[in-house]
């Protein structure tokens, strides 16, 4: 392996929460031993006092290490989290003794075998408790109506004077709406609060029948900046985004779904990167996924992005959320035409319905460098159990369609990216297999995966689950997505 590959491997490992958890835990033990030796042996403190002070200080190191580095909760009171962390640590000591007793006294295992088992089980339990209880995110982005981070400044709308037709803005923000009235004003508010103000809003109404048109056109802080368009008929989202892109005048293109949010520095941070690196075609930000009540997780906490020419890495693990992406206009204009119809816009593939965003990001990454802002400046709202997880058959079809398109528009693709061809073929087969299992056809699902073998933990887990009735899909999906991301690959 080259030095760059080693560095990339190390960065990838350090992006895993469980790796960080183990490192902080090991550092805590080292701090406890060193402080205990310092207090008792070097300074002559009483044994009980020295060890007690060393334990308290090591707990503080553990708390701030796990909080600030491992889990990075989006909000939350330290008073509450520290108390929960303390009880988890005390519980861990008790659990250690209880498990050793059970394994040795009740099950008859030797002490030499019981201790290694306990040293694995207890940290796993502590990790799960810290992740899902101690450091659970507790910010409520639904409270953005009163959160000063999302409120426009007092003079919002005054310094956002209307842009003259001959003076295009630097950034065009695309908002596609279809009956988005419920959360639309929150999204408009975060736009008005942006520290970077040289932007326009292309608001494309895809045939709304609610109050969305009136909210958008009457929102005072963006008067003169928001350009409202309404389609003649409701069309698929990819086609609606292409229609909006035709109206955009900016040097850079950003996308904001009508129920997502941006923090005030979002546009400024991305424009700064574009201005500094002309070879970059796409800049994304870290994204917090929230459900209207609390933040569920951060995307970059599970998958660290790769900067530079990262086409293959992005194909393997897509880390760009739509509302976090900003594109360079020249990158859009340089895309190869669609193979099916040279007259179709080369932006969003209108033949796709669930993968059109990822497909665009892939094609930009093939020819341009990627970059990212390592800060959660985008908030992506999810509603209940994401329905896209139920569209496995459609995902499979579109995955193969993307692969076929790549082979047609990029000469030598099958030879240069043979590993990606194999990956997408296996991915599509797995998606088809999941769809078959949901229909109660577990045997056919296992037969479909047989040629690819059970090389990954995910495939082995699915193989076992496929013997269950298809009605167990929802429960199995919830359990699966609760697993660490490393196990889901």
Largest sheet: 9 strands, mixed
**3D shape:** globular
Annotation field: number of helices: 19
Global mean pLDDT = 84
Give the full name of the CATH homologous superfamily of the largest domain.
Spore Coat Polysaccharide Biosynthesis Protein SpsA, Chain A
CATH architecture of the largest domain: Alpha-Beta Complex
Q: What is the helix/strand order?
A: HHHHHEHEHEHEEHEEHHEHHEHHHHHH
Q: What's the number of domains?
A: 3
**CA gyration radius, whole angstroms:** 26 Å
Class based on secondary structure composition and strand pairing: alpha/beta
CATH C-level class of the largest domain is Alpha Beta
Beta content comes to: 5-15%
Helix content: 40-55%
Q: Total strand count, please?
A: 9
**Termini separation:** 22 Å
Poorly predicted runs of 5 or more residues: 139-164
CATH topology of the largest domain: Spore Coat Polysaccharide Biosynthesis Protein SpsA, Chain A
């Amino acid at each position: 392996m080259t030095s760059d590959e080693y560095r990339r491997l190390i960065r990838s490992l350090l992006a895993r929460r469980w790796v960080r958890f183990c490192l902080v835990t090991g550092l805590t033990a080292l701090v406890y031993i060193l402080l205990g030796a310092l207090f008792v042996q070097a300074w002559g403190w009483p044994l009980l006092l020295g060890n007690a002070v060393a334990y308290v200080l090591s707990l503080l190191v553990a708390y701030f290490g796990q909080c600030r580095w491992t889990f990075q909760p989006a909000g939350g009171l330290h008073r509450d989290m520290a108390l929960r962390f303390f009880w988890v640590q005390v519980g861990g000591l008790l659990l250690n003794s209880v498990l050793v007793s059970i394994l040795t006294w009740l099950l008859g295992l030797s002490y030499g075998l019981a201790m290694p088992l306990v040293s694995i089980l207890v940290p796993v339990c502590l990790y799960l408790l810290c992740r899902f209880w101690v450091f659970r995110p507790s910010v409520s982005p639904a409270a953005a109506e009163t959160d000063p981070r999302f409120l426009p400044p007092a003079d919002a709308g005054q310094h956002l004077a209307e842009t003259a037709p001959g003076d295009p803005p630097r950034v065009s923000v695309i908002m596609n709406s279809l009956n988005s009235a419920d959360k639309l004003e929150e999204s408009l508010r975060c736009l008005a609060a942006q520290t970077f103000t040289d932007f326009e809003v292309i608001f494309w109404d895809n045939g709304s029948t609610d109050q969305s048109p009136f909210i958008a056109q009457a929102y005072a802080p963006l008067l003169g900046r928001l350009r409202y368009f309404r389609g003649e008929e409701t069309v698929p989202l990819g086609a609606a985004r292409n229609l909006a892109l035709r109206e955009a005048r900016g040097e850079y293109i950003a996308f904001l779904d009508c129920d997502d949010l941006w923090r005030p520095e979002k546009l400024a941070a991305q424009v700064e990167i574009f201005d500094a690196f002309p070879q970059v075609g796409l800049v994304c930000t870290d994204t917090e996924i929230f459900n209207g009540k609390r933040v569920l997780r951060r995307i970059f906490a599970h998958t660290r992005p790769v900067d530079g020419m990262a086409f293959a890495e992005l194909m393997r693990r897509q880390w760009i959320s739509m509302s976090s992406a900003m594109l360079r206009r020249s990158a859009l204009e340089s895309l190869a035409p669609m193979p099916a119809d040279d007259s179709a816009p080369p932006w969003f593939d209108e033949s796709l319905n669930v993968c059109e965003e990822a497909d665009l990001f892939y094609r930009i990454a093939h020819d341009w460098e990627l970059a990212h802002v390592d800060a959660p400046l985008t908030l992506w709202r999810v509603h209940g159990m994401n329905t896209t997880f139920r569209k496995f058959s459609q995902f499979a079809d579109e995955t193969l369609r993307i692969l076929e398109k790549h082979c047609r528009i990029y000469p030598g693709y099958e030879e240069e990216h043979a590993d990606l061809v194999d990956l997408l073929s296996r991915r599509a087969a797995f998606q088809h297999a999941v769809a078959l299992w949901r229909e109660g056809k577990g045997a056919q699902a296992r037969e479909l995966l047989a040629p690819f073998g059970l090389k990954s933990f995910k495939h082995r887990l699915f193989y076992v689950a496929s013997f269950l009735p298809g009605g167990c899909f929802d429960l199995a999906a919830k359990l699966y997505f609760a697993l660490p991301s490393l196990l889901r690959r």
